Amino acid sequence: MIEVVNLTKTFKKVRAVDEVNLYIEPGEIVGLLGPNGAGKSTTIAIMSTLIQPTNGDVLLQHKSILKNPAALRNLLGVVPQEIALYDELTARENLEFFGNIHKIPRQKLKERIDKVLVQIGLENERKKPVKHYSGGMKRRLNIGVALLHEPEYLIMDEPTVGIDPQSRNYILETVKKLNKEANTAIIYTSHYMEEVEFLCDRIYIMDKGRIIAAGTKEEIKAILSSEKTIVLKLEKHSNTFVDALMKQGILSNIQVKEAHISFNVAKNTDFLPMLLPLCEEHNIVIKSFHVEEPTLEDVFLHLTGRALRN
Amino acid sequence: MFFALIQKQLKILFRSPQEWLVLLLMPIALITIIGFALGSLMEGSTEAFKVNIAIVQHEDEQQEFAAFLQEASEIIGMDEQVQKSLTQMMPISKLKELLFENEEMKQFMNVTNIDPKDIEKAHSKGDYGAIIEVPNGFTKQFFMSIFTEEEKPTFKVYLNDNKEITSTVVKSILDSYQYQFTLMTELATKDFINEDISLPTANFSSSIQTINQQEPVSTSAYYSFSMSMMFILYWAGTLAGQAFLEKHFHIFDRIILANINPSIYLLAIIVSTVILSMLQMFILFAYAHFMFDISYDPWPLYLIITFMIALVVGTIAALLSAINYRFNSIEASNIFGSSLVAILALLGGSFFNFSSFAPAIAKIGSWTPNGAALQGYLTIQQGGSFEQITPYIAILSILATICFIIAFLLFPRKGGIA
What's the Rg (C-alpha) of chain B? Predict the structure, then answer.
């Protein structure tokens, strides 16, 4: 198990990571969700032994790795947000180089390269220089490099940034498969709520350097369990109707997107007797109406008052 | 693992045609251009510098001299001793002697006697850099002008404007000739002339030797070495730039995560630079050998200097990488490649020979890595021994040690959190 205890990192006067506590157990996928600048990358850079924390500790099997990072590094694979590859080399040459610096024996490295190329779906492109790859292919190889030495823990920092939906799905499926087949524990950071929701067993939500929520998907959504989300689709948008809704006081998190209006309301509140007369008063025709379970996006909005992808 | 770091570096650079264009084709082009442009002029090969001169003589010198003696004896009287002295001053004979018979002059002059009726043809063909036309009565008038108030004779010299160097050379020769005759004329008029005094012919006989009695270095050899020494320096900036990109794209993080000690990484930069620099030198020297017949004997001495300069360049690459990493900017290698190399090349004698510098500048130049190596190569070219190149090896060793120490002090030795 890797544990992060009271981790703090200050850059000059900016506190990028503030008293963060988290852990990951073998075989689980943990999501670190937060907007850009939340402190996710700094947190995982410290966990990866690449940055010294200002305060706090990182423990591997309850032992600090700050003085002996090699122990953790041997078990760790890191997929950085950047494409950390040599453009002039082919996929195979990149894998050979990174395998060699991990001191993987020659024969085993050959086998691992063949296996990883299949895992990331680049077995037919292995002789092509990386500079001729698409963005999605580079991202896949970026992941492949981190898998070569069969790490027990894999840290992935926004591995799907800037790629097409097809490549994104491929990567998500690969991560899921890797966890299932090799029992690799994965820390997955993203500001895409749906990725984290799809992959992760447990989730940490970060904002402004702090963990603001933690738990399983269900536990986090339960933060909003006292409320329900109502989504209305109107025939046409009306500012006066929205203003009238806001004045009711029993609704929260009112979001308006053209003719769609969503809001939260306490679970036991019967809001229809309030809504229907308002519609009649403002000549509003409701085209559809449904009640939704809260999403992680709703939770983040609830906790910070801001959308996740600002 | 160490070998993997070096192998990767070599592969990347072998696949970067732009780097090779700068680091190999440019010095080859410069060595070729400078070697051919300056080589034949400065290294004593006179084929490209052969001066063609024609002499057209309208008179018979002996007949003219006889006519002078007859006339002069009637006017001023002429004893036998003076007559003998004057035979030493036959102007056209002396000119021909100067041009035709001097061994040194023969090396760069073709002097041809042409018939007066062919003079127009010679003018129109333009083959001659200069045509000296001696008019009828020149000799007689020349001697008469010494003893009487008669006007001094002139001969015509046609210089070919298209052959500027030839024209300059001919002018110089004729100026010298004219000066000597004027001197003799003055001596004659002051009655200093006698049988024992004769017109001195220019003594061009000389031997070219270097100050230290060593073999001279040809221009093409000088510039082959000096250009090579300039372009070897570019490897430092190139490799340091590559190293910074590895940091920028987090490849260095992956290297650290593989538990590679940063010192090993820095050492790999040095070794890669040494290999690439030496390879560059071997190619350039091989090219110079085939192009200009430059020989490298004894080759072990060349190998020592080449290894030492490559080592210095390697440590400079490490130093620049350390600065880039320390300040998280590629500026150090950019400034080195864009400005410092040119300054070092200038001080180190890549553009001008050390001998043209003021002593203080030459001293500074000899402490530049390229300058020290260049002097080492030139010493070997001049037949120098290992002992004679020891000071340059010492300078290169000192420079390599200084760069190495500073690089290792500046480079984030721990890398990551360990």
Answer: 33
A25 and A149 together in one domain = yes
Q: Is this structure's pTM higher than 0.80? A: no
Site of tokens 């029993």: A250
Is A139 within the bounds of a domain?
yes
Residues of B in contact with A97 (CB under 8 A): 4, 7-8
Distance CA A281, CA B1 (A): 77
Q: Which structural domain, as residue segments, surrounds residue A193? A: 2-221
Q: Do A84 and B249 touch (CB under 8 A)?
A: yes
- pLDDT tens, position by position, A19-51: 999 999 999 999 998 888 889 989 999 999 998
Which ipTM score applies to this complex? 0.81
Taking the C-alpha atoms of residue A160 and residue A139, their distance in angstroms, rounded to an integer, is: 7
Please tell me the distance from the alpha carbon of residue B256 to that of residue A33, in angstroms, as a whole number: 26
User: Can you give the pLDDT at residue B165?
Assistant: 64
Searching chain A, which residue's CA lies closest to the CA of residue B259?
A: A70
Same domain? A208 vs A62: yes
Contact B15 A129 (CB under 8 A): yes
How far is the alpha carbon of A104 from chain B, nearest alpha carbon, in Å?
10
Nearest in space to A263 (alpha carbons), one of A300, A292, A305, A303: A292
Q: Give the Cα-Cα-Cα angle B69, B73, B76 (nearest 5 degrees).
A: 125
CATH code for residues B51-207: 3.40.1710
pLDDT of residue A20: 92
Contact residues, chain B, for A129 at CB < 8 Å: 15
CB contact under 8 A, A48 and B253: yes
* B375/B299 Cα distance (integer angstroms): 16
Q: CA of A265, closest CA in chain B: separation in Å?
A: 47
State the sign of the Cα–Cα–Cα–Cα dihedral A180, A181, A185, A187.
negative
**Residues A84 and A106 placed together within one structural domain of the fold:** yes
Same domain, A176 and A120: yes
- Tell me the two tokens of residue B169: 């050379």
Out of B4, B15, B250, name the one closest to residue A101 (CB): B4
Q: Please, where are the H alpha helices in B109-233?
A: 119-125, 138-147, 164-189, 219-232
* Average pLDDT estimate for B93-118: 76
DSSP single-letter state for residue A132: G
Residue of chain B whose alpha carbon sits nearest to that of A106: B1
Query: Distance from B107 to chain A by nearest Cα, in Å?
Result: 56
Asked if pLDDT for residue B241 goes beyond 90, the answer is: yes
- Note the residue count of chain B: 418
Residue A197 has pLDDT above 90, yes or no: no
Note whether residue A35 is domain-resident: yes
- CATH value at residue A269: 3.30.70.980
What are the chain B neighbours of A85 within 8 Å (beta carbons)? Answer: 249, 251
Q: Is the pLDDT of residue B369 over 90?
A: yes
| H or E element in which residue A30 lies | strand A29-33
Q: Average pLDDT of B161-170?
A: 66
- Looking at the DSSP bridge assignments, the partners of residue A232 are A261, A289
Write the CATH number for A138. 3.40.50.300
Q: Would A299 be classed as within a structural domain?
A: no
Q: How far apart are CA B167 and CA B161, in angstroms?
A: 7
As a whole number of angstroms, the distance between CA A9 and CA A202 comes to 24
- Within 8 A of B258 by CB-CB distance, chain A residues are 73, 98, 101-103
Please judge whether A69 and B417 are an interchain contact, meaning their C-beta atoms are less than 8 angstroms apart. Answer: yes
